[in-house]
User: What shape does this take?
Amino acid sequence: MRYVLRRLGFYLLAAWASLTMNFVIPRLAPGDPATAMFARFEGRISPEALVALKTAFGFTDAPWHVQYFTYLKHLLTGDFGLSYAYYPSPVTEVIGTGLLWTLGLAGCAVIISFAVGTMLGVLAAWNRGGWLDSALAPALAFLGAFPYFWLAMLALYLFGFGLGWFPLRHAYSHDVEPGATLTFIADVGRHAVLPAASIVVATLGGWMLSMRNTMVAVLGTDTLRLAHAKGLPPRQVMLRYAARNALLPNVTGFGMALGFVLSGSLLTEIVFSYPGTGYLLILAVRNQDYPLMQGLFLVITLAVLAANFAVDLLCLWLDPRTRAHA
Amino acid sequence: MRPAGLIASTLFLLLCAACSNEPRPRPPGTLFVSVEQQSAWVRNFNPLFPGAGSRWPTRAGVYECLELYTPSKGDFQPWLATGHAWSEDRRTLRFTLREGVRWSDGKAFTAEDVAYTFQLLRKHAALDAGGVWRFLSDVRAEGPHTVAFQFSRTFIPGFGDLAAQPIVPRHIWELVADPVTFTNPNPVATGPFTQVSVFRNQVYELSRNPYYWQPGKPAVRALRFLAFPTNDQANLALVEGEVDWAGNFVPAVDRTFVSKDPKHHARWFPLFGSTVFLYPNTTQPPLNDVRVRKALSMALDRERLVEIAMYGYTRPADATGLNDAYTGWRDAAVADDAWVRHDAKEAARLLDEAGLTRGPDGLRRQADGSPLTLDIEVVGGWSDWVRAGQVVARDLRKLGLQAQLRTYEFSAWQARLQKGEFQLAISWSLDGPTPYTFYKWMLSSATVRPVGEVAPANWQRYGDKETDALLERFEVTDSREEQQALMAQVQRRFSETAPAIPLFPNPSWGESNSKRFTGFPTEANPYARLSPHAEPDSLLVLTALVPREAP
Assistant: This one.
């Protein structure tokens, strides 16, 4: 219990530090949001509007320390303010357009990729030199080495444009009414196949290789020899003894990957026109949209920290040694 | 393993069922438009705030303005107002409003609404995009169908700003606490499409205004907008025939789009976009010397430049710098001036004359012998400008100038440009209904800001006293002949002083698919610009389109 509390304290400290960075870094970039917004019109609105925009965003001229405390206060109350890029829509509404879709798509893809990749790694190490080990592992590593953008475009071109099996864009059809109906769920599923599959294919090799390599090392240890000697069934030895011990590094990696789900699926979103937070993040940076940036970074920070905390707890369960130290 | 296998196979079956679904027929009479590029839509129909937040066509389609300016015709046409008249002393402008116009909630549209809209602009400076309260002193309704604008000084070009303002209903906006931050989710307006019938993160649909004032219009039943995050996705939908009307840049458009269905697919890229300039910082030697600026201009092979940078979609700029929206204003004699034509010999002569002679290494030096380097600044990701910058740098190097292209991230580039901390930069220019706006931000001393202070335009920081006087006279005359004569003189001054180096006018991108709808503007029938970005012409197109099959 004390260990858990200590970890929790550490995470709170980390959260504060990253929130402060989150406040400082955007403000070090050149330019200001009003001019950025003005510039997007490339002369289609009159220069007088620049003054008008500055009036609207006037509050950003306050001194830094004042801005910092209002920032913290607003974070605690869940008030992220109004997005500049989507002015005057509230940041929460803007993030809301993409958050669930990103979580759903990239989250599922990462979980599938981790589960399948890890299992394949276990099997490859267990049957070392078999076809899984000698053919699939290098093949997946080869696929993973392609630039993701290219892989996704290829998938879209082949299965969407060429064969017409899957839709070319969006998370659901524009003429389907969203709701808890089978049609809508099936529609969402059909739209998610290509983007999710492209993420899985691109990341599967990494999980498989790292699992296989740790597993091979674990297979050579005395514990395993003892387990075999005791006459345990091979399947139990493979899963409960070897895989469980070898899983630790992969679980840590999984925690990291889960945390970065929210920021890392930009290319998927662009190629498949999928709504999501990755695109919003780029847009926020491009438009000096501090409120939107801060809102997104907060969500991402919290996701990374929460995922790591969950992994810590998972390790505690998987690895008795951490419990002994606690 | 068992339950997992079961779930997996159920999911698989479900997916197969979904896959086998045939595409549903398109709703009849629904026009698919691609204007904005976003990964998800945010619900905002605020027509007053000039920022980018509101969904298209809030400012010209949901809401409407008093009179419409159409660059293809070069004139205004009546809309919510049937006409306007200046008072004898040119200090009062009266608009006569159309009778029988109703808001989409059924209430009558009156002069009170117009007056209230402008009062809102006065109260909330952030809404006053055109800066109308710099020249207005009062606005009031004179009866239900006349609204009078009192000017604080005679300022004829102010008419354009007043006519273009989207008008909001008083009875709704009176109750809005802060019109600047109001997202107006359910607009009440006078335009042809006011009812938000669908709004989801990837699609929104606008349906007809039940009380629209043009009888029988619009013939289009609804407008539908799909979210495309990038040009590529939008272009794919256009080529596939899913989108009926778009305003995107399409590379090799005739091959990739028009040739797919030449009967229905059409594009029209008139040169109504803002002219792109190479801006010299005239506060720095040697760019403060007009001979040097003209030499730089003559060093450029613009024919090649438009071919490489713009795929030949435009033409080299002439010596007036004006785009084709001002064809009626262009002075043919000025337009032919030599300083925008490629002439390397004359350019070299001018540079020698200005004291920038070649050293033994072939490189030109400043008059005091110090080495001369010229940096051309562009935005890193804007590939057309980057290509233009490369051509410019190459042409200048041929003259013995050490010119190089520097790419900056957008906001850094913008900050340097606005503060005057650059040597040469590529950027756009400003437009209005008359060339007044364009030349004001090219030559007027009133727009010159000191180096270090942010300038919204006139980045070259050049002011010309003679032009000031001409523009002042332009501000107080409403005779077209006199305006024309004054503008001809301003063009002459522009050509003589060469405050900035014009490269090419931008095309206004517009593509249409007439498979389901007819009546799009074309080069033969230019009743409006085809580009949906072009507001307020979009109102003309939206009310002119007719579905081929009756819904």
